[in-house]
Amino acid sequence: MTPGAIVRLAILILLLAFLLAPQSFAPVFAPLTRFGAPPIYNQGSLLDITLSHLWITFLATLASTIVAVGLSILVTRPFGKEFLSLSRSLANVGQTFPPVAVLALAVPVLGFGTEPTLIALFLYGLLPIFENALTGLTNVPRDVDEAARGMGMTGWQRLVGVELPLALPVILSGIRVAAVISLATATIGSTVAARTLGEVIIAGLTTSNTAFVLQGGLIVGILAVLLSDALSALERLLARRAGLTRRAEA
Amino acid sequence: MIEIDGLTKTYEATTVVDHVSLTIEKGEICVIVGTSGSGKTTLMRMINRLVEPTAGTVRIDGRDTRDRPAHQLRRQIGYAIQGHGLFPHRTVGQNIGTVPRLLGWEKPRIAARVDELLSLFQLDPALYRDRLPSELSGGQQQRVGVARALAAEPDILLMDEPFGALDPIIRSKAQDDLLAIQKRFGTTIVLVTHDMEEAITLGSKIAVMDKGKLLQYATPAEIIARPATDFVNQLIGTGDRPFRLLSLETVLDHVEPGEAAGDAIDASLSLRDAYAECLWSGRDAIPVEEAGQRIGRVTLSRLTALAARPQ
Ligand SMILES: Nc1ncnc2c1ncn2[C@@H]1O[C@H](COP(=O)(O)OP(=O)(O)O)[C@@H](O)[C@H]1O
Ligand SMILES: [Mg+2]
């Protein structure tokens, strides 16, 4: 095991320990509180909130992935070429819209709760995945594509058998970016009553309890680093499987 | 048999293939030669409908190529290109098995065919079957590319500059291999190249293209002896003509009885090699041997006469 992997494992174990038995960390956070305020978040289970945060991130990223990859497949088919620029600008709008504005607009329609947050995160995840999927699908080497056609593969067979497998590492890289953004951005969902770690941070800010703020921030930060690392490792594995790097070098 | 009739391809205002008609007999190697941009690739790609003709028809064994879906047509025709186009994410075995799999062959039959082809191309199946293309040398990748094109036992093989990326020694070996395989299976081959030397080495017929037009379609001997236009003449290279002519035949074709001094040459070599040996060793005659047995000699005067323009 590399030193990097050992450090990551240690951080993961520490995080799990904190989520499963937060009270045992009370002495660590006590110096950050004043006037005998609670050193550990006490308005709900940190584990439950973290799981809910992860679940919202997962659902939003999954939806972004399905829509963005589907869209990128459509616009790279012969019949979909004309929609290429249109779909690009749509995804761009999704990205330039501040998530707070999406929340503000969605609340009157959908009410408070998880839905407006999911929609904001979903829109936010579209662009990085779409751009990467487009890059992956359009960068299949010319001779590979020509050989596939020349051997009599149909459009569907080329998509499933050649284009998608070759594009997969690049697509996954877009999913990683979207997931990490989504994980961090999900915190603002708690302003419209979605159950995310933003709740812990906001509770800390409103009661001037630095310990809460730190707890919420640390959990989100560590999750983001671990998630990004895990997906990067998967990307490298897939790239090697796709024969894009030599086995010996990897 | 491939019958190409009035085949034309126009992109917007430019005609890149202009009314080309030619017939390629079964078991022939037809080499399409010409400078870059002359329309060779476009002409060849219209045979398997990777390019749809603007006008004209292609018939294979009397059957119009448009009477079935393009992808089905292509599965019946082998296709090998420069840069080989191997699937980087599939093993060598999976690459070779592509068309048989598309045709729905049974797994054991595909596996047997893959191993047969690997052996034929001097790649040990046990060693190479499960490698990725990136783990092969350039020459090996090229051989796998040709093996893949031959996998479903096509009657016709289209090759677009298949040896273009190889260095001279590997290239000449690949050409020999192709000739041996063609002899063995009787495959009709259409091969595109910009190299007249390669065209003469491989072709039983040569089609010379320039600016989309077919200038001449004839045997190598005919093309060398009677080039139809100045352009064809230039392509052959006037200074090389006698040697190109000699390269078409082997020593065995012209061995005569008699003795000669010095080392013998093998009867399978070309007359051009024999001529070079005469000049280099300063001899007027060289002994010829076949399978280690002296079978006669070849003389400089005979070679000189053969190098002259045919009447
Ligand atoms: N899809 C295309 N669209 C427009 N022009 C093309 C296309 N394909 C080929 N051409 C043009 O047709 C001409 C002949 O091309 P090609 O058949 O590839 O020549 P060659 O193989 O002899 O080098 C070139 O000038 C090329 O630019
Ligand atoms: Mg070409």
TrEMBL record, chain A:
Entry membrane topology: Multi-pass membrane protein
GO cellular component, one term: plasma membrane
ABC transmembrane type-1 domain location: 50-235
Any one GO BP annotation for this protein: glycine betaine transport
Compartment annotation: Cell membrane
Similarity-based family: Belongs to the binding-protein-dependent transport system permease family.
The protein's name: ABC transporter
Organism: Devosia soli
Automatic annotation (TrEMBL), chain B:
Keywords associated with the record: ATP-binding, Nucleotide-binding, Transport
GO BP annotation list: quaternary ammonium group transport
Pfam families in the record: ABC_tran
Record carries keyword ATP-binding: yes
The keyword Transport belongs to this UniProt entry's keyword annotation: yes
GO molecular function: ATP binding; ATP hydrolysis activity
ABC transporter domain location: 2-236
Taxonomic superkingdom: Bacteria
Matches recorded under InterPro entries: AAA+_ATPase, ABC_transporter-like_ATP-bd, ABC_transporter-like_CS, P-loop_NTPase
Entry similarity comment: Belongs to the ABC transporter superfamily.
Name this protein carries in UniProt: Amino acid ABC transporter ATP-binding protein
